[in-house]
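I hope you will forgive my troubling you with a question about protein structure. Could you please explain, in whatever detail you think fit, how the structure tokens follow from the sequence? Thank you for your consideration; the sequence and its tokens are set out here.
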Amino acid sequence: MVDRSYHVVVVGGGPAGSSTALRLAELGRSVLLVERTKYERFRIGETLPPGARPLLEQLGLWASFASQSHRPSYAIHSWWAGSSQALETNFIFSPYGCGWHLDRNKFDSDLAAAAERGGVKVLLESRVEEIFRKGQGWELVVHNEEGRHRIHTTYLVDAAGRSGRMLQAEGRRICCDRMIGIAGTLQPWPEKPSADPVLLLEAVEDGWWYSVPLPSGCLLATFLTDADYVAESRQSHQMFWSRLLQHTVHTKLRAQNFDFPKDVHIYAASTTYRSRSVGANWAAVGDSASTFDPLSAAGICKAIQSGLILAEGIHHQLNGTSDSLHDYERMVLKEFRGYMKQRLYYYGLERRWPKSRFWSRRQAQETGQSFDRELSLGRDE
């Protein structure tokens, strides 16, 4: 077993983990980034808003990102709240230019590669088998094709996402709803026009759809609903997705020049938060700290920004300034409370289906207050 030591170990190589690791390396820290895949598995595609450009510039990645094959995104069209016309958000008015429809696997892989170029030791296809405290720090056992590695570190960052099982004893995850996403990738017909380079949202009785064109020319169409709707349908996920797509208006029209997929991907899309996001020589970042409804369109920007802030906090704490991580935790909680108010507002705009469980669950006036009480209780634990 090989022994190695680092100032910081980051577990999880998504945007939050790679950003944290890269910034810490820039600050002179020795950092190990552990990722369980080679970025070959399906990752839900995402549209990166124009406001992501300053974050990529801060990481020194904008020039390389702009030269990649990600597809420009010029607007968001929303069929929401019963409007007879799409509500349009045009990026032409943004000082940062257009947004981008991502090749998500490539985006995440490129961030990890940039971290490695910046001095981070990156282990791909690696699994953390054990984690335990050792003195004032941590010891991990990491396994990959090269064997088992015993890793010593002063500080540990949980960037393993909402499904991660790291540090469960250090803070419970509180789930605010049971939303899931069912995503299908539609293949284009030959010699047919591709989909317009916009993100399209469409509200329906039991949830809502979003669809985006991918750099490959495919169309990603995702249905957001609650898990109990799928269970009650007694259909396969693919049949459920296909049937509901046929009940849409604008999404179905957009998909008319594409072949439906033979399989779909289902994933958790619930709103969650962690009762504690920092502790003794550990912190959670990105989706490990909190997860937002996809309607917020904040996923990647939130991940990168929180990673940059956390890296600064860890650096200062390792230098003996302990209050900086309490500032980070306060930021996480403030951000979550602000998101919950925004969530209640946008779901409250849609009033066409008063008997729908999906919409009524998100429109209850007491929802924001009850979550705020739970946040306060969770923080004291």
Remarks:
- Residues 269 and 331 are 22 Å apart (CA to CA).
- The chain has a mean pLDDT of 89.
- The longest strand covers residues 147-158.
- The chain has two domains: 2-46+102-173+273-332, 71-100+178-269.
